[in-house]
Specification:
Shape: globular
CATH superfamily: CNF1/YfiH-like putative cysteine hydrolases
CATH architecture: 4-Layer Sandwich
CATH topology: CNF1/YfiH-like putative cysteine hydrolases
Largest sheet: 6 strands, mixed
Length: 281
């Protein structure tokens, strides 16, 4: 179950427990102004760096990390995951991240892993036995490629993680109520996940009239579909052997006043962040 915290506002999952801190941010409680008001956590959204730093300072003070401990992803909608550590602290906030990596993982305490979203799916993983964590960005392309499972596999390989021990939280993202896509997204999910994915992809003809536009009802090649990215990523995790999975009920597109949503406002928006860090063992 997800819990909401305030000043600044963020969410946490009660399945991620132990020697770890984590959060899923909202857009409330920061110092950014204009179209980025107020808790923008992206350094490439047109914000002043001092505002972004202060937003991390405020969020970190509430959650239990510092801006200097952060390590960012560099998201390009791949299934690339990378191991990082203390030497990488500052990547993203204080210097550019060079290699692309839509997922990052570590077994070193004091390394705050950060992935970003503004409708895409943020996923946090914690191995309480081998003391390891991961932060994963899964857009629809990354979801189709199984990036969540790729990260589980990497933790198993590098740390000896038993997927059955993992605590997984899937944060707020665009929901199946709002994620209208063309047939190419459905095709990509079915190609990678098989027929089991079909139950998580509704054709427009099954969506209530109030949830779709008139153009969505066209049959055939132009028909629209409404995938459930949270459920599809949970399916990948279950197939990878993960048993404990918490899924946020929040849709970012439905609540643009609370969450950054690319579908709602386009590029004139900030970035949400999901953060997880091992504390001292």
């Amino acid at each position: 179950m997800f819990e909401t915290h305030f000043n600044p506002e963020y969410l946490s999952s009660d399945v991620i427990v132990g020697q770890v801190v984590h959060c899923f941010s909202t857009r409330r409680g920061g110092v950014s102004t204009g179209y980025l008001e107020s808790l923008n956590l992206g350094v490439h959204r047109g914000d002043e760096w001092k505002n972004v730093y202060e937003n991390y300072r405020r969020l970190g003070a509430a959650v239990g990390f510092t801006p200097e401990q952060t390590v960012f992803t560099r998201q390009t909608h791949t299934d690339v995951v990378a191991r990082v550590g203390a030497a990488d602290r500052g990547d993203g906030l204080f210097r550019e991240v060079e290699p692309e990596r839509d997922g990052i993982y570590t077994d070193e305490p004091g390394v705050a892993l950060v992935c970003f979203s503004a409708d895409c799916t943020p996923i946090l993983l914690h191995d309480p036995v081998h003391h390891a964590v991961a932060a994963v960005h899964a857009g629809w392309r990354g979801t189709a490629k199984g990036i969540a499972a790729r990260c589980v596999e990497a933790m198993t390989r590098d740390f000896g993680t038993d997927p059955a021990d993992l605590q997984a939280a899937i944060g707020p993202c665009i929901g199946p109520c709002c994620f209208e896509t063309g047939p190419e997204v459905r095709a990509a999910m079915l190609a990678s996940l098989g027929e089991e994915a079909e139950q998580f992809i509704r054709p427009a003809s099954q969506v209530r009239h109030s949830e779709r536009s008139e153009e969505s009802v066209s049959p055939g090649a132009n028909e629209k579909f409404f995938p459930d990215l949270k459920a599809l990523n949970a399916l990948w995790l279950r197939r990878a052997g993960v048993r404990t999975i918490d899924v946020s009920a929040d849709c970012t597109r439905c609540q643009p006043e609370r969450f950054w949503s690319h579908r709602a406002v386009g590029n004139a928006r900030g970035s949400l962040a999901a953060v997880i860090m091992l504390t001292a063992l």
